[in-house]
UniProtKB/TrEMBL annotation:
Residues 12-115 form the Cyclic nucleotide-binding domain. GO terms for cellular component: cytosol. PANTHER family: CRP FAMILY TRANSCRIPTIONAL REGULATORY PROTEIN, HTH-TYPE TRANSCRIPTIONAL REGULATOR ARCR. Keywords: Activator, DNA-binding, Transcription, Transcription regulation. One of its GO terms (molecular function) is DNA binding. This is Transcriptional regulator. Residues 146-230 form the HTH crp-type domain. CDD domains: CAP_ED (cd00038).
Amino acid sequence: MDKSKFLSRIDLFQKLSTEELMQIEPIAPMNTIKKGTIIASPQHGGKLLYLVKSGMVRLYKLSEGGKELTVDLLRVGHIFGEIGSFTISSENMYAEAWEDCVICTINKPQFEQLMREKPELALHFIEIISTRLKEVEEMMEHMAYGSVRKRLLYLLHKLSEKFGSGFSMGENEDTDRKWIELEVKLTHQELASMMGSIRETVTEQLTELAAEGIVSKEGQRKPLRVHPERLKMAWDACR
DNA sequence: ACATTAAAGGGGT
DNA sequence: ACCCCTTTAATGT
């Protein structure tokens, strides 16, 4: 089994609450980052903690062949980076501005002072790390042994939890209300990179799922929609 | 890997 | 603002 598949995961980080953000923001320099900019990389090594204030950040690793493995997509309130031995993500991680972003940075002295002044925050950081561990284990379990279809179903489920929004197509509320729209711009390539598969396979599988009424899309570069109930049925059916 | 198609961008009117 | 053309990115096989 390809080792990189084990690294795929989603929703790694728990968000900070708005109150906690208020506590941190005053001491953290804020930067506007343009879409596509690399915010942090293994080379930087600049021991900083980053906090997403707006926009979306993509975390990824590079595999041997230089292929990108998307590890997570972060939004407002998510944190990433490392300071000294305090590491929120694994090492060798790249962070890219997926959209135009506003990012706050915290250095080690600031971070340590903050932890002393606000023990609740320190506790929350511990929770975040624990949650991450749990998520990693759960994702490993699902990505390690399942078929591509099963992994894709699971990924779609996680994505709809994280990015899903209620959605209605029109008059027929009873059936239409059941669709969830994923509020992220995800290409087949992206999905593949999150589940340790290849683009072609994802395309193929998505076409199947669309035929089964589990997913739908209006067109290229349009948001993907999933039908949670049918998704669950399909999931139950393939074990 | 190649072919197709849809969408974004740029220039001119 | 609108139309048309070029270019690029996404998808399909």
